[in-house]
Amino acid sequence: MYNTPQKLAAEFLGTFAFVFFSAGAVCAERFVQGAGGGAIGVALVAGLSIAIFSTALGPVSGAQFNPAVTIGLWITKRVNTMEAFGYWIAQILGGVAAAFLLKAILPREEAWQPVLGGTPDLARDFTRLPAIGLEALITFFLVFVYFATRPDDDLESRARSGFAVGLVYTLGILVAGPFTGAALNPARAFGPALASTHWANQGVYWVGPLIGGLAGPIYDAIYGKKQP
Questions:
Q1: pTM for this structure?
Q2: What is the count of structural domains for the chain?
Q3: Would you call 107 helix, strand, or coil by DSSP?
Q4: pLDDT at 160
């Protein structure tokens, strides 16, 4: 059984890795001027980072790595208020630390600054309301799959859950990336926004994913709460 500091450290590390790799992939793609993996490469990097670190850290904290997942667990009483607050803080700090590390080590003019450190933003003429809806819908599927494949004491199921959730991230980024930047996670948006001081449309990346967190109670309403 892991204690609270170990769980919070796992959430920090997992979210740090996700933001570092996903935002870093955006910066790298800019640096090579589109000669890399393109949108598919960026989506795969994000999805694989979630899959790998969910498998590694799922036994510790459940590998939430996303305030939207945490709010779903809180609403369904799988975590209490203090635990949810602690996870949120760890996740946000992980995203902030990753963003500032990228800012410190990547070529500023050629990679980091042109894409504002990978900060997601809306496409031209794509307004906030449909952007919130798109972020909410894809995050809904992400949280739904998390609940449906929630890890238990079986190592094989932990790996399967991380892989499944990572694939949802990949699919979501491929669909929403051109329109919203596809944060699907408030920590993914907040860290780079803080590092780049680019706050345009930041509310989209909080309101949309947190609405998507309602997939947790909806899953329970349809299929019932899993027994430990």
A1: 0.94
A2: 1
A3: coil
A4: 74
> Domain of 198?
4-223
Count other C-beta atoms under 10 Å from residue 164's C-beta. 17
What span, in angstroms and rounded, lies between the C-alpha atoms of 105 and 121?
23
- What CATH number does the domain containing 189 carry? 1.20.1080.10
| Residue-level pLDDT at 33 | 83
First to last CA, the chain: 15
Burial class of residue 206, CB neighbours in 10 A (0-12, 13-18, 19+): middle
Q: Which of 37, 44, 55, 54 is nearest to 21 (CA)?
A: 44
The token pair at 209 is 């994913």
Q: What is the chain's length?
A: 228
Question: Has residue 228 been placed in a domain?
Answer: no
Q: Could you report the average pLDDT of every consecutive run of 10 residues in the chain (228 residues)?
A: 94 98 96 82 96 92 95 95 97 98 94 95 95 98 94 61 93 96 97 97 97 96 76
